């Protein structure tokens, strides 16, 4: 089951979004919070297999141009394993969902209507893996109440 927690309080994912630009200039006028987005592995497998495969093709082309994958790219160095294997490996899951496919994940499971946004993701601190879920956690901000 997919769920969002803001400051450990269950919240509606429709009020949370990953902004296309950094919040750097806005943070001083906003309130900081912690967030935890829990996503079912089965949903990720069904919803992101095609997206992942497209990303792998693009990444392999980039690796060919460079001659090798970046040394800090644990997915590329591992030979671009199947998505199911990535969802069982915390390091690879963190790289995939906090770097490469972060916008796609937030667009699919969180807010896409700017009028409903109450919280903006600022930083992903990490990803944890359980048997059934992936947990993405970090820092988000909300507008300061007047």
Q: Can you walk me through this structure?
A:
This protein is an alpha+beta fold and 146 residues long. Helices cover 36% and strands 29% of the residues. The protein contains five helices and six strands; from the N terminus they run E-E-E-E-H-H-H-H-H-E-E. It has a six-stranded mixed sheet. The longest helix is centred in the middle third of the chain and has 26 residues, at 41-66. The N and C termini lie far apart (35 Å).
SSE blueprint and pairings:
Blueprint: E1 3-6, E2 9-11, E3 16-17, E4 30-40, H1 41-66, H2 74-77, H3 83-86, H4 90-100, H5 102-109, E5 119-129, E6 133-143
Parallel strand pairs: 3-5
Antiparallel strand pairs: 1-2, 1-4, 4-6, 5-6
The largest sheet has its strands arranged as: 2-1-4-6-5-3
How far apart, in Å, are the first and last alpha carbons? 35 Å
Largest sheet, strands/sense/barrel: 6 strands, mixed
Uncertain ranges: none
Query: Which range best describes the helical content: under 10%, 10-25%, 25-40%, 40-55%, 55-70% or over 70%?
Result: 25-40%
How many strands appear in the DSSP assignment? 6
Structural class computed from helices and strand pairing:
alpha+beta
User: Total number of helical segments?
Assistant: 5
How confident overall, as mean pLDDT?
90
Shape: globular
Secondary-structure element series: EEEEHHHHHEE
Work out the strand percent: 25-35%
């Amino acid at each position: 089951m997919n769920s969002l927690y803001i400051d450990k309080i269950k919240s509606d994912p429709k009020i949370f979004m990953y902004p296309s630009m950094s919040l750097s200039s806005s943070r001083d006028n906003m309130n900081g919070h912690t967030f935890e987005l829990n996503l079912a592995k089965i949903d990720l497998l069904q919803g992101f297999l095609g997206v992942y495969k497209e990303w792998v093709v693009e990444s392999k082309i980039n690796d060919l141009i460079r001659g090798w994958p970046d040394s800090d790219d644990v997915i590329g160095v591992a030979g671009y394993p199947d998505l199911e294997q990535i969802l069982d490996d915390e390091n690879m899951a963190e790289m995939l969902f906090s770097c490469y496919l972060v916008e796609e994940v937030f667009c699919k499971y969180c807010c896409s209507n700017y009028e409903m946004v109450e919280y903006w993701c600022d930083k992903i601190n990490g990803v944890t893996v359980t048997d059934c879920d992936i947990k993405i956690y970090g820092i988000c901000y909300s507008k300061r109440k007047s």
